[in-house]
Amino acid sequence: MAQPTFTTHLGMVDILPGEVEKWQTIERIIREEAKKFNFDEIRTPIMEQTELIARGVGQLTDIVSKEMFAFERGEDHYVLRPECTAPVARAFVEHHLEQRGGTQNLYYIGPMFRAERPQKGRQRQFHQFGAEIMGADDPAADVDIIAFMMAIYNRIGITNTTLKVNSVGDPESRKAYKKALQDYFRPNLSKLSEISQKRFETNPLRILDSKEDEDQPFIEDAPIITDFLNDETAEHYAKVKELLNNLEISFEEDPHLVRGLDYYTRTAFELISPDLGAQDALGGGGRYDLLVEEIGGQHTPAVGFAAGIERLLIACEELGIELAEEQKLDIYIVTLGEKARKWALSHLPKLRNAGLSASIDYIGRSMKAQMKDANRENARYTIIVGENELNEGKFTLRDMKASEEESLTFEEILDQLATD
RNA sequence: GAGCUCGUAGCUCAGUUGGUUAGAGCGCCAGGUUGUGGCCCUGGAGGCCGUGGGUUCAAAUCCCAUCGGGCUCCCCA
Predict the structure, then answer these.
(1) Straight-line distance from CA A371 to C1' B38, in Å?
(2) pLDDT of A366-401, one tens digit each?
(3) Which residue is the nearest neighbor of B77, CA to C1'?
(4) In Å, how far are A58, A80, A99, A228, A400 from A196, measured between CA atoms?
(5) What is the ipTM of this complex?
(6) Is the CB of residue A216 inside 7 Å of nucleic acid strand B?
(7) How far does the CA of A19 sit from the C1' of B31, in Å?
(8) What DSSP character marks residue A61?
(9) Which secondary structure element, helix H or strand E, spans residue A343, and what is its range?
């Protein structure tokens, strides 16, 4: 096939009719669950200041160091948002949302952008939904965030997942742990992979996340963060696990779970699916008690999650979950001749105002072609309008499924359809 | 940034050791019924075989390059 003149950019895809209905279903479920969990929607711009993302997500992360779609215009530095927690935190600070009182429970749905090589479950423009609880230090918030996330997957029917949890510690615990890790790796530093050697100084925690073969034997026996948590953090983590158990949300502790965004503190979690291929994380999140301060706000402990919609769709596909029903059209008006067309155009609004979906042929096709079209559109009824019908003031209402016809006035047709 | 792999009709794909005007199924359009869909039958439209170059009497087929897609590593959703 010859390549068309214009195509989408690499890793950016059109969501076409037939597919988009699945997205609508997912979005509807997210909104319904959000309502149950008392989360309010927030919509932030697609572009943010580059510096916000750099400071929020972390200068050394892959996201910031090599995956940003960023450009300058005059004095301004724009970046297509690669995630939505930093933008939500920014909005929180900018609009003093804490003044609304209590904690802020916010959720979002929208496109994110990262300049990576696309593969299964990974696009350059991808879509996340997520939620944040801002202003709560209590483990109850961590658990409600997880419960919210799980509720959405349960509603959709994706239940064969594994929830992994860990605590990545507060700054004090992290400092102690970082030192312990460095002490542990130092004797074997030269045997580690190149990447891990680089991370040794900056962020040794990330070594634990490495999938390089040569690192594995060292990672296995590495000290684990949970042994270095201070009392307060350990207690918080214990509480989170206890509450998860109370809610009968099953989980696995994974002491090596480290998240790739720098803002995480204490609770971290990830939801894994066996149906996804190489990119097996449906969603993940955790606490980010320091982010709001980092970007210039008051100290605001917070916890959140983000999840990928494309991956959710892949999982549904694998599990054979039907997300969208066939679209149905209530009425297709089949017209024969100019007069009939005129009649149809003047009566379409009456059908539509009555809450019915209704359509006609625009391009003067034969009756047979119109019937075929009506069939393709899954029309429940056709109204057939020709010379005879116009003269008599009675129209042929055809029930497409039953293949039965009646001759009725337009008012009678409206009545009948209204009772359906 | 690196590796593997694939580019033939709108879609899914055949195309035998290089050999006349490149095929099928589905889809689309039309006819079979001058006013009736789904099933069936018939016909039609739609391809410079991703692009460029080379080898050859002859290339979808062999060689080189290039562009594009998919998957994977890294990392994340």
Answers:
(1) 10
(2) 999 999 999 999 999 999 999 999 999 999 999 999
(3) A308
(4) 18, 29, 44, 21, 66
(5) 0.89
(6) no
(7) 34
(8) S
(9) helix A338-353
